[in-house]
Amino acid sequence: MSASSSRFSSAALAPNSVIGIVGGGQLGRMSAVAAAKLGFRAHILTQDANGPAAQVAHQVTLGAYDDHQALEAFARAVDVVTFEFENISADALDCLAQYCPVRPSGAILRISQDRLSEKTFLSEADIPLAPWMAVTDHASLHAAADKLGFPFILKTTRNGYDGKGQARVYEASQLEDAFASLAPHPLVAEGMVDFACEISVMVVRGTDGTTRCFAPGLNSHRDGILDVTLAPAPVPEETAERAQALAVAIAEKLDLIGILGVEMFIDSTGNLLVNEIAPRPHNSGHWTMDACPTDQFDMHIRAVAGLPLPPTLRHSDAVMKNLVGPDDMALWPEVLATPGHIPHLYGKAAARVGRKMGHVNILFPYGSLPGALGIQDALGPLAEKPDTENDDA
Ligand code: AMP
């Protein structure tokens, strides 16, 4: 249902209204804090009474995301619902939508949850993508290899994140094994992009149709997990503007209310190709928390609550560094002692390998993001370590 045709009012929520957030992780935590800053109360639906979001929320409903009784009780207790992760069912959002507005809508979640529907939607909207094909069986697998050439990438359509659920296929002899190694089918085959870098744009759209975009960030990954975002992405101004225009076009086509992260590849010739969209606050937008007067979480809550969206001013350039797992957490005392490191910790009990525990923002005067060496210097204890594992000396 479109924003304009919703049977719920799109009027701004009054102070002390209740924002329901489905999901109890760090994105919910930071959204709840943003809600509190605007005088709202956050009510979290989660299964984890001690999770990151529950720790800072006004109220918590404990329940499974497919428990219709819990969903109904939750929806009746809030004025609007949003979500902070994508592995809930869109059916659950439809259930919630009987009682209050759900922003972004379940229809948008449905598109973003499935690579095939995402690519179909984006292709129909004339958004540039890497060449792709649906792979449903052996015939379409071989047709994809013919069309895309080697190497290409096979990806699962659902629940693939942080580089999981994909296989690179370099030659015909690997086709069947790659197909069998990924489940469930159907899969998506994607042409290998001659990849220069990955950027992402956070775009927000309000109930009145106003759209706002933050500057693109440049993302780099470690072990398939976002490691560092540089903002603004050091790309030509024209590329940054094109990236923002694509993000706005997607938000408008989706009839978005709330925030959306748009991940894009830049290929070696400067082309932009959209990789994924995520209708929620995004790790690659965390730099806005310290570099912008109104950050991605403030914007998201404003949009969800029907408040006006101010321009996305940026007073500083920024580097965001994730703190992942026990190795990064071992550096926490040093991070705290490093001048200029702005720490954000998510309140997770155990620092398991690969788990996002927090992040650090480092600010630079507007327009003076340093080069690679300067960034490593600023990262201090969090700088990349030279590989000394095999060094017996
Ligand atoms: P994804 O799970 O789609 O976000 O992909 C994870 C990572 O794999 C991306 O950040 C890229 O580094 C790489 N990747 C994914 N798709 C492609 C592609 N079509 N061409 C080149 N690299 C890709």
From TrEMBL:
Its EC number is 6.3.4.18. Keywords: ATP-binding, Ligase, Lyase, Nucleotide-binding, Purine biosynthesis. InterPro entries: ATP-grasp, ATP-grasp_carboxylate-amine, ATP_grasp_subdomain_1, PreATP-grasp_dom_sf, PurK, PurK_C, PurT/PurK_preATP-grasp, Rudment_hybrid_motif. One of its GO terms (biological process) is 'de novo' IMP biosynthetic process. One of its GO terms (molecular function) is phosphoribosylaminoimidazole carboxylase activity. The keyword Lyase applies. Pathway: Purine metabolism; IMP biosynthesis via de novo pathway; 5-amino-1-(5-phospho-D-ribosyl)imidazole-4-carboxylate from 5-amino-1-(5-phospho-D-ribosyl)imidazole (N5-CAIR route): step 1/2. One of its GO terms (cellular component) is cytosol. Residues 119-305 form the ATP-grasp domain. Transmembrane segments: none annotated. ATP binds at residues 115, 155, 160-166, 190-193, 198, 221, 275-276. Belongs to the PurK/PurT family. Homodimer. Catalyzes the ATP-dependent conversion of 5-aminoimidazole ribonucleotide (AIR) and HCO(3)- to N5-carboxyaminoimidazole ribonucleotide (N5-CAIR). Catalyzes the ATP-dependent conversion of 5-aminoimidazole ribonucleotide (AIR) and HCO(3)(-) to N5-carboxyaminoimidazole ribonucleotide (N5-CAIR). PANTHER family: PHOSPHORIBOSYLAMINOIMIDAZOLE CARBOXYLASE (PTHR11609:SF5), PURINE BIOSYNTHESIS PROTEIN 6/7, PUR6/7 (PTHR11609). This is N5-carboxyaminoimidazole ribonucleotide synthase. It comes from Acetobacter malorum.
